[in-house]
Amino acid sequence: MAPTKYLDRPIPAISLADFDSRIDEITEQLCSAAESVGFFCVVDHGIPVTTIEEAFELSSKFFALPDSVKAAVPFSNNAGWEKNAQIRPSTGAADRKESYQMQFGANMEGKWLPDSELPGFQLSALTFMHQVQAVSEKLMKCFARGLGFDDNYFIRAHDISRPESQTVCRLLHYFEVPADNGRAGEVWHRAGAHTDWDLLTLLFQKGGQSGLEICPGREVSTSFGYGDTWTKVEPSSTGAIICNIGDLLMSWSDDRFKSTYHRVKAPTEPGDYYGERYSIAFFNQPCHDALIQGPKKKYPLVTGAEFTRNAMNLYYAKTMAEKEKKLAEPTKMDVGGKIVDGIGA
């Protein structure tokens, strides 16, 4: 495997303080970051650090439960628990992780554990999810303005109160990786190089648990960033939320905003983090019946359901093509694989 090439790049940090009075300034900063990097972090967003820490404690309690208990809410219809089940067609291997995906309202029917198993979990999780949604809606308002839509354009398309909502919050637990990873003939992947296909992703990382890397601005010269330069995004202890543009917003902006490749690199090199890793990802996904088309109408009008289905079909095709390419040219293969469900780190 070729060694990874790294380049230090600044990740724009954008303050949401005094949002209503600074909305024009914030909109300009967000649009600039979306056009150039596709990644940024937001600070002064209103979610206390203690609340984020409590969310990670909640996640830890869930994943500490016996698998037999978590299996009572198996993954289906974009919600529930899975373990070692996300297989990368590009590698033929599953990520060594487990996750629990949560939605709003009736979409979670039968997907919450009973309170007797995890007291207060459902209420606490939903409270946190609504707080993250509020931050998302501020960002959506700015991007709508930047594209010339009315302020609530994206908010309406991502209305979590409707049964057509697809927005999800995903708790992630990556297992500890053997210290000889990659030297014993097998690489334990965490999350291979991918883009998300939602509108926006808001990611919370737990301090000290590194691994997230980006290949920003679609600067790549090869598929999925293989052989190109990456930048490490270290976790913050200040409560900063790492955000990235998804394929949906890239399409909805007529490719003005950039959906960026990112990964949680499989640790194989000195200095890599091998311990268990927790993160929380919030994916703003459109309602099934949302109508999607950019202001310049570069792409045909589709619904949220059609966009998701088209993205899945495209990603499977691209992933299999990339796998064949790598098999033919093994020296160009790097650690990781193209994700197939658009769900990130």
Automatic annotation (TrEMBL):
<dbReference type="GO" id="GO:0016491">
    <property type="term" value="F:oxidoreductase activity"/>
</dbReference>
<protein>
    <recommendedName>
        <fullName>Fe2OG dioxygenase domain-containing protein</fullName>
    </recommendedName>
</protein>
<keyword id="KW-0408">Iron</keyword>
<keyword id="KW-0479">Metal-binding</keyword>
<comment type="similarity">
    <text>Belongs to the iron/ascorbate-dependent oxidoreductase family.</text>
</comment>
<dbReference type="InterPro" id="IPR005123">
    <property type="entry name" value="Oxoglu/Fe-dep_dioxygenase_dom"/>
</dbReference>
<dbReference type="InterPro" id="IPR044861">
    <property type="entry name" value="IPNS-like_FE2OG_OXY"/>
</dbReference>
<keyword id="KW-0560">Oxidoreductase</keyword>
<dbReference type="InterPro" id="IPR026992">
    <property type="entry name" value="DIOX_N"/>
</dbReference>
<dbReference type="Pfam" id="PF14226">
    <property type="entry name" value="DIOX_N"/>
</dbReference>
<feature type="domain" description="Fe2OG dioxygenase">
    <location>
        <begin position="165"/>
        <end position="286"/>
    </location>
</feature>
<dbReference type="InterPro" id="IPR027443">
    <property type="entry name" value="IPNS-like_sf"/>
</dbReference>
<dbReference type="GO" id="GO:0046872">
    <property type="term" value="F:metal ion binding"/>
</dbReference>
<dbReference type="InterPro" id="IPR050231">
    <property type="entry name" value="Iron_ascorbate_oxido_reductase"/>
</dbReference>
<dbReference type="Pfam" id="PF03171">
    <property type="entry name" value="2OG-FeII_Oxy"/>
</dbReference>
<dbReference type="GO" id="GO:0044283">
    <property type="term" value="P:small molecule biosynthetic process"/>
</dbReference>
